[in-house]
Amino acid sequence: MTSQSKCTYILASILALLFLFVAKSVIAKEIEDDREFDYIKGSPKGPEKWGELKLEWAACKHGKMQSPIDLSNARVKFISQPEIRNYKPSNATLKNSGHDISVSWNGDAGSIFINGTEYHLQELHWHTPSEHTINGIRYDMELHMVHKSSDLNVQNRTAVIGVLYKIGRLDEFLAKLNESISSLIDKKGEERDLGIIDPNDIQAESQSYYRYMGSLTTPPCDEGVIWSVNTKVKNVSRNQINLLKEAVLDYAKENARPLQPRNNRDIDLYLSRYPTGY
Ligand SMILES: [Zn+2]
Question: Where do the Alpha-carbonic anhydrase domain residues begin and end (predicted)?
Answer without folding.
Answer: 35-271
